[in-house]
Amino acid sequence: MTATNDRHKVVVIGSGFGGLFGTKALRRADVDVTMVARTTHHLFQPLLYQVATGILSAGDIAPPTREVLASQKNARVLLGEVTRIDLANRTVVSEMLGRETELAYDSLIVAAGAGQSYFGNDHFSEFAPGMKSIDDALELRGRIFGAFELAEIGATRGDNVDHLLTFVVVGAGPTGVEMAGQIAELAHRTLKKDFRAINTRTARVILLDAAPQVLPPFGAKLGERTKRELEKIGVEVRLGAMVTDLDERGLEVRHKDGRTERIEALTKIWAAGVQANPLTRTLSEQTGAPLDRAGRIAVNPDLTLPGHPEVFVVGDMISLDNLPGVAQVAIQGAKHAAKEIQRRLDGKPGQGPFHYFDKGSMAIISRFRAVAMVGRLRLTGVVAWLMWLGVHLVYITGFKNRVSALLKWAISFFGRGRSARTMTLQQIFARNALARLERGATDLVSRPGEYDEARRAELEAQAAEEARLTDQGARGVPVEQRSAG
Ligand SMILES: Cc1cc2nc3c(=O)[nH]c(=O)nc-3n(C[C@H](O)[C@H](O)[C@H](O)COP(=O)(O)OP(=O)(O)OC[C@H]3O[C@@H](n4cnc5c(N)ncnc54)[C@H](O)[C@@H]3O)c2cc1C
Question: Using CA positions, which residue lies closest to atom 50 of ligand 1?
Fold first, then answer.
């Protein structure tokens, strides 16, 4: 596909924090931007756990990118998974359900993020979904609320339901902490009056990590404080505990002292590791830029690829100066890239290296309890929670999503309810079912241009026959009477 005019063409890969903010930062530039992404939405990943635990609905944290960019005239949105990047010929190839598109670019911003890492044990994913996408969050919602339902059935039949009421979160980083805190609140507060055969307050929530502390990026003191707060709301925190095996009914853990333990738990949630998007491999092969253990690519200090000043890589895909995998790194990196493109077109000198401004980090433990780190300031409790509320309201994309989230937070935090508890069997099982199909969802659609003329004739004949039966008053009339008439 080629652009219709000679304006500078920018292709942006990804509609996450880097992709969306990079595209928006180019709104006044004399360029044509094509943002290609494998989902139709921009995802606010930090609130995925609230979709999984029924506080928010998917739409609150995942507005359609097409709508977000509707008034940005120089930007277009294309649905597709990028499968090839050809740096020499400056093209990007994307694919969606068997339909391939080639895009030419003058400048490229790669912001394809990171995925879940099971540290080489990918088969764990069947029974312990990660939390990276709306699909993941909805599946987890189904599994979490579904476990309480199965426990109710089991208790009604007189079965032992301990394993159904045990929830294990693997990974004590911000995502794991937030998830464990919310499941504890669900069990001990939200659901306590909803069941008859089980007492949801007896549910166990276990947070495991191989590392010796909770929330390592927040430092030892806040980590210890968070652990105590989690324990206060009923979360069992097990540190130095490495998961060695995992199946449908539970998992095996090896402790630091060599002891092994089997935990019976239907619901496992993987919040343990991240791996950069595999597109870093092709970029590395074509430039010689090395990858680190998490698959992140070493970029130049100005976020370009070695030998390719026209290609910027931003966000979770990069390894530069120990920058963390957080939203602000992606947002600021993408804005830096957009500004550099604009300056080059204006004939201005380059900005030089990318400088990250750390605005701080925070994690919510439960309602009215959070931890926050801003510069040298370490905050906990209600003050940190209010900061968390303010920051998230500012960064959720779109006014209507902010209003909707605020309303649902009021319902969940001040009341006992959760507005988004809907779950279906499809939600729980579709991912694994699709994974078992050889070519995933592509198997379920016809390929472009594949069109069955005979089937069309059959459908036309069938419709004509239906119409004739109605027109001739032949419906409901026995065959013998029809011929007699
Ligand atoms: C559960 C969770 C909680 C988090 N909490 C916080 C938090 O509290 N604070 C914080 O600062 N950070 C948090 N983060 C991290 C933060 O979300 C990431 O650092 C940030 O999203 C990185 O932005 P990005 O643009 O690099 O990638 P992403 O935002 O992940 O965007 C990647 C985009 O690329 C698309 N894509 C991927 N592969 C392809 C392909 N081949 N072709 C086309 N498109 C593709 C994806 O669909 C997506 O649109 C959290 C992350 C997770 C998963």
Answer: 46
Ligand 1 near 206 CB (within 6 A): no
Binding site membership of 146 for ligand 1 (Cβ less than 6 Å): no
Question: Given this chain, do its domains 8-117+275-345 and 122-272+367-434 carry the same CATH topology?
Answer: yes
User: Ligand 1, atom 17: nearest CA belongs to which residue?
Assistant: 45
- Structural domain 122-272+367-434, CATH architecture: 3-Layer(bba) Sandwich (3.50)
- CA dist 270 and 173 (Å) reads 11
Active site residue 67: no
| Confidence (pTM) | 0.92
17 lines ligand 1 (CB under 6 A): yes
d(CA 417, CA 440): 36
pLDDT tens across 264-301, in order?
999 999 999 899 999 999 999 999 999 999 999 999 99
Domain extents for the chain? 8-117+275-345, 122-272+367-434
**φ/ψ of residue 89, rounded to 5:** -95, 0
Q: Which of 139, 178, 185, 340 is catalytic?
A: 178
Q: Are 425 and 142 in contact (CB under 8 A)?
A: yes
Q: Is the CB of 22 under 6 A from ligand 1?
A: no
Q: Determine the length of the chain.
A: 485
- CA 475 to centroid of ligand 1, rounded, Å: 58
Given a contact cutoff of 8 angstroms between Cβ atoms, the answer to whether 411 and 418 are in contact is: yes
In angstroms, the CA 243 to CA 124 distance is 10
Give me the long-range contacts of 338-344 (CB less than 8 A, separation at least 24).
Answer: 338/22, 338/23, 338/25, 338/26, 338/29, 338/109, 339/25, 340/302, 340/312, 341/8, 341/10, 341/26, 341/29, 341/31, 341/107, 342/26, 342/28, 342/29
Between the CA of 18 and the centroid of ligand 1 the distance, in Å, is 8
CB 12 within 8 A of CB 31: no
Nearest residue (by CA) to ligand 1, atom 46, is 14
Q: What is the pLDDT of residues 168-209, one digit of tens each?
A: 999 999 999 999 999 999 999 999 999 999 999 999 999 999
Domain 8-117+275-345 sits in CATH at 3.50.50.60
With beta carbons less than 8 A apart as the criterion, state whether 164 and 266 touch: yes
Amino acid, res. 44? F
Asked if residue 250 has its Cβ within 6 Å of ligand 1, the reply is: no
